[in-house]
């Protein structure tokens, strides 16, 4: 069944729907006995009123093309004389009403749109959170084909949790982050995003409460939302999440999960203070709630040594830890990892094998070889210098071009600046105008539960754009913000003139 409605036509919507169903029944495209969606389902799928569908169905019933049976729902009846004129089922199914409830929770924020913009040649992209092409370590890839061919069996298949030798290399790497975990406590993932999805599917039932920081990493919010979670946000300040508010939420709602990015948060760049970490762990222990720690950025500290992950302070195994090679080697490898108890890793492997079975054998070998080569530390030192320089170029450009009312943070590490827009400038309008002007930015909207907060912010990534284009991009952006801000002020002045009493 395939229905298109055209609200600009003079024909009433219920007639448009009834006519299309009628022609599809008589042509055989909708077969005899086809079970129609309920009035509510079809109304939702077409975005019309339920009475519109009620009237369409009434008309079809009166024409003898539809029948309702208790227990069987509403079905198609094909008149004897009509014969299919063309091959049945030749049109595409109407996906919207076939989708599961899971799919219906999906919101419409489309990350691909931003990745596509980032890939356009002429666009200066501050939108995507990806590494620079200039920092992909050539030495990680050079000569790899010979090694791959020398151990071909490792090209065929990997254990679900990853090659043991890579898990071992990661467990040593974790020691440098002051986290002590055995290889059996490590699962190799196809990006840390997969870890968020796995944990969501393993723990979250529809209606369960998940606590996040606000703002937060928007694909994590989407993941929790897809699972039907009730998401509650804890505000952040310069020391991370407000643990006082967290405690109130824990005591009142008994959440299933706390999701946090304690080091160089995406998008705020903030790291959680030691006091807050201690309190967060105490609270998780007291209420028996697991913490999902997402840590892609702790290697990227530009000022001093970054704080160790929360996992390093976790005495009781409350913290499930995620990290990735996307931010340090290349996101295209799709390789990340999880650290958790051996038992949990083995249980999660059971459901992970139903999605992608295991991470790419080639990516695993590239990373393992690179980690064992001793080059990783040099490379990390190199990207720290590179990204620090890019951060400084961006901040300098903002200092030069920013209009009044625009403010931003100075992150000590990570990938992003989080900018507060001047009064009256909305992130959605700015994002659209900036894209037309050749600059891509990410609006704060998908990262926040409160639309007001989201509309008041944008996230700027400084690692991806070429160094020599950052200042130009910021110049264009700031001049657009200035224009929008002054248009807003003019509007306010006009309103005040028209309504002097207000
Ligand atoms: N978590 C956070 C906080 C991130 O910023 C990102 C990447 N933008 C991810 C997870 C996903 O990373 P990966 O490429 O490893 O899936």
From TrEMBL:
One of its GO terms (molecular function) is transaminase activity. The keyword Transcription applies. Signal peptide: none annotated. The keyword Mitochondrion does not apply. Residues 11-79 form the HTH gntR-type domain. It holds the Pfam family Aminotran_1_2. Keywords: Aminotransferase, DNA-binding, Pyridoxal phosphate, Transcription, Transcription regulation, Transferase. SUPFAM superfamilies: PLP-dependent transferases, Winged helix' DNA-binding domain. It comes from the Bacteria. SMART domains: HTH_GNTR (SM00345). InterPro entries: Aminotransferase_I/II_large (IPR004839), HTH_trans_reg/aminotransferase (IPR051446), PyrdxlP-dep_Trfase (IPR015424), PyrdxlP-dep_Trfase_major (IPR015421), PyrdxlP-dep_Trfase_small (IPR015422), Tscrpt_reg_HTH_GntR (IPR000524), WH-like_DNA-bd_sf (IPR036388), WH_DNA-bd_sf (IPR036390). In the C-terminal section; belongs to the class-I pyridoxal-phosphate-dependent aminotransferase family. PANTHER family: HTH-TYPE TRANSCRIPTIONAL REGULATORY PROTEIN GABR (PTHR46577), TRANSCRIPTIONAL REGULATORY PROTEIN (PTHR46577:SF2). This is PLP-dependent aminotransferase family protein. It comes from Enterocloster hominis (ex Hitch et al. 2024). The lineage of its organism: Bacteria, Bacillati, Bacillota, Clostridia, Lachnospirales.
